[in-house]
Write a structure and sequence with these properties.
Structural class of chain B: mainly alpha
CATH architecture of the domain at 410-508 in chain A: 2-Layer Sandwich
Mean pLDDT of chain B: 83
CATH superfamily of the domain at 410-508 in chain A: ANL, C-terminal domain
Shape of chain A: globular
Order of helices and strands of chain B: HHH
Organism (chain B): Streptomyces goshikiensis
Structural class of chain A: alpha/beta
Largest interface: A-B, 48 and 48 residues
Oligomer: heterodimer
Helix content of chain A: 25-40%
Strand content of chain A: 25-35%
Protein name (chain B): Phosphopantetheine-binding protein
Strand content of chain B: under 5%
Pfam family, one (chain B): PP-binding
Strand order of the largest sheet of chain A: 4-3-5-6-7
CATH class of chain B: Mainly Alpha
Radius of gyration of chain A: 24 Å
Number of domains of chain B: 1
Chain lengths: ~525, ~80
């Protein structure tokens, strides 16, 4: 199948199978599946989904064969896939399930542990598809189905305007917001990206990012769309590339903070990634210093810096890095728009400008949020077209665009989108009676969240964050939180955020984590034994 | 001996996690993410433990579940020492 014929997201997998018959499609732990073997897993899960006419299929699974097969099975059955992270906070999981209107869920072993948290968000009649033993306490009305025999499916009437997936991002009002992406949106991205890179059968892609983060869609479908193998790594393995030499990864997707973390921790020595041919940076601003460090570690790799919000299907502009002479802290340009994507930069007055907010329209751009109320203020009518306002500030010049920051309080932490308002709302609920200031301070690897709670009864960090962790994923939990008896106010009677930020920086510096352990604590060479 | 050695694990954790209270005992079921153990800190912790305890984490132990709480980490270290 030629790339231009592919319109449905799952057809990129079929294309890979044609390009690499009998070749490896997926490596999980010590297990490797060929395209044919993974396809059999997909049809086994898709059978019961198609038979039930499922429309919205949750995938409560992570980094397992069932997770990848389940995502593809949802598409193959003609449904919209809704990735769900088993380690998501319980309250968030139920809220997302209810908002998505799931009528079926594929569950793997990790997901089974999170099922009790998900159940309150499921409607009666919802189908659970799993090969696992019967979960003990299924409420009445939830139907259990086993994967069927592998085989062809009869699903008709599918088209490029069907929803392919629904992903939830941080919402400033305190609840996650759903971003629906159609097959035509994400397939346009895959087609463009495959033209940018020389990849094919024999390549080995890292798979680091959770399916709930849309950068994973690039990892999966560029690998499968080119007939390559997807090699699954957890987030700790991803930060230990020296331990991964035998995987011979040739294509890395990385957030700049992952690369910066490796570099700062001395884990990116020159030449340590000799097999890498292509590196895709995405998710947050890339600095010249990080690009240079990566180039030293992977001298044979092309480095592509992509930009795009989830609303525009992974990425919609790109700039191939060349050994520039810029200072280490300079931001690498995000380059030019992909084919089929149109860009508009508007100044504060709403008129087109060289510097201002970036607006997008075109084949990759979504048509609106799951909850239409979220569309308010996010679209701009200009020149007879409807443009999505990204909230990203850019400067456009002869060399393309450069990212300058945000128009609002959204921040990127380790590549994840975080709305300060969502963190504040969760902390207020976790520490009733306190005033909450959530701030970012610059760390070695990018912004870090910190929070100051003021007033109310004294609280300890672990207690507050333990409660907040019911609503917030780990990357949204402040790295440090402290309590003060009285609010710290400026002359206008408002919370003095600059002063709190300086205080946070002092606190972080005075208690900086140390890699060395005091000599008196070094034990005998034998390892400890658990007490239980 | 066991008590002393859990104290050593506590010391190693304290050295890396500024948010931990200086004096209190660290409960075995404390979720380490709530005291600042992110992915980067986890990798540094893993290397430190390998150096100090003379063990090597096998591939299957290099997983978030190992580092969820002091107790889960303690259990894996015990298995590595005896296995």
């Amino acid at each position: 199948m030629a790339a231009e014929e592919v319109v449905l997201l799952d057809q990129w997998f079929d294309r890979g199978r044609t390009l690499a018959p009998g070749g490896p499609a997926l490596r999980v732990g010590r297990q490797t599946l060929t395209y044919e073997e993974l396809d059999a897993e997909v049809t086994a899960l898709a059978g019961p989904l198609a038979a039930a006419g499922s429309r919205r299929v949750g995938v409560l699974a992570a980094k397992s064969v069932s997770a990848y097969a389940g995502f593809l099975a949802a598409l193959r059955a003609g449904a919209c896939a809704v990735p769900l992270a088993p380690d998501a906070p319980p309250d968030r999981l139920a809220a997302v399930a209810a908002a998505a209107g799931l009528d079926a869920v594929v569950v793997d072993a990790t997901g089974a542990a999170a099922l009790p948290a998900l159940l309150p968000g499921l409607a009666p009649g919802t189908l659970l598809v799993t090969a696992l033993p019967q979960p003990a306490d299924l409420p009445p009305g939830i139907r259990l189905r086993r994967p069927g025999p592998p085989g062809p499916l009869r699903v008709t009437g599918r088209g490029p305007d069907d929803l392919a997936y629904l992903m939830f991002t941080s919402g400033s009002t305190g609840t996650p917001k759903g971003v629906p992406i159609r097959h035509r949106n994400i397939s346009a991205f895959v087609r463009t990206a495959l033209e940018r890179y020389e990849v094919g059968p024999g390549d080995r892609f890292s798979q680091i990012y959770e399916l709930t983060f849309d950068l994973s869609m690039s990892e999966l479908f560029l690998a499968w769309g080119s007939g390559a193998c997807l090699c699954v790594l957890n987030r700790i393995q991803a930060l230990s590339p020296a331990r991964l030499a035998d995987q011979r990864i040739t294509v890395w997707h990385a957030t700049p903070s992952l690369a910066a973390s490796l570099h700062n921790a001395g884990r990116l020595p020159p030449g340590c990634l000799p097999d890498v041919r292509t590196t895709v940076f995405c998710g947050e601003p890339l600095t010249s210093g990080t690009a240079r460090a990566w180039h030293g570690a992977a001298p044979g790799s092309v480095i592509d810096n992509l930009y795009g919000p989830t609303e525009a299907s992974v990425a919609c502009t790109g700039h191939v890095w060349d050994a520039d002479g810029l200072p280490d802290d300079a931001t690498v340009p995000i380059g030019r728009e992909f084919p089929g994507v149109h860009t508009l930069v508007v100044g504060a007055d709403g008129a087109p400008a060289d510097t201002g907010e970036l607006c997008l329209r075109g084949e990759q751009v979504f048509t609106g949020y799951l909850d239409p109320a979220e569309d308010e203020g996010r679209f701009l009518d200009h020149d007879g077209h409807r443009w999505y306002r990204t909230g990203d500030l850019v400067r456009r010049d002869a060399g393309g665009m450069t990212h300058l920051g945000r128009t609002d309080t959204q921040v990127k932490v380790q590549g994840y989108r975080v709305e300060i308002g969502e963190v504040s709302a969760a902390l207020r609920a976790a520490a009733p009676g306190a005033q909450v200031a959530v701030l970012t301070v610059d760390g070695d690897t990018g912004p870090q969240l910190v929070a100051c709670l003021m007033g109310g009864p004294p609280v300890a960090q672990a207690d507050v964050l333990g409660r907040a962790a019911r609503r917030l994923p780990a990357y949204m939990l402040p790295r440090m939180l402290w309590w003060l008896p009285e609010p710290v106010l400026n002359a206008n009677g408002k919370i003095d955020r600059p002063l709190l930020r300086r205080a946070a920086q002092r606190r972080l510096a005075s208690s900086a984590p140390s890699e060395s352990v005091p000599p008196e604590s070094v034990p005998s060479p034998s390892a400890p034994t658990p007490s239980s | 001996m066991e008590t002393i050695r859990y104290e050593i694990l506590e010391k190693i954790l304290r050295a890396q996690l500024p948010a931990l209270e200086r004096e209190a005992v660290i409960p075995q079921d404390l979720p380490l993410a709530t005291v600042g153990l992110d992915s980067v800190a986890t990798v540094v912790l893993m290397d430190t433990l390998e150096d100090i305890c003379g063990v090597t984490f096998p591939d299957e132990a290099i997983a978030p579940a190992t580092f969820r709480t002091p107790g889960s980490l303690w259990a894996v270290l015990g298995r590595l020492a005896s296995g």
